[in-house]
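Morning run. Coffee first, then this:
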Amino acid sequence: MGFTESLRTCFGKYAKFDGRASRSEFWYFILFCFVYFFVAGFLLGFSGVSDEAFYGATLVLLIPIFIPSIAVAARRLHDINQSGWMQCIFIPGFIADEFLGTGYVIYILTLGLWAFWFSQSGKKGKNRFGVQPRK
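And here it is:
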């Protein structure tokens, strides 16, 4: 699956949390989100807006990709035969970090675990979440 086809699929399934997503579909969407925020942040920073305006603009820019990001991550977890709710496993760590003050340790560990999960190859054939997505 190519870059534009992945984006078309992710935005076409805007709030579809069932089914499965291939690795390429997921990672191309993550690449799009990274580039989207990088370019937006560069343009906002270059224009010299205040910090408050920058944070507000970031929240506004998050609106169109927030739901599709959660949906494609749920479908990607389905592809490795896990529940989409496994995305929430990192929330307690982030909350604990606020109370323990561990710095970026918990963030780095959860990011590593997250990357490991989403990089695994999907289950071949049909699983409890549907048929195998095409590559």
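The mean pLDDT is 86. Good start to the day.
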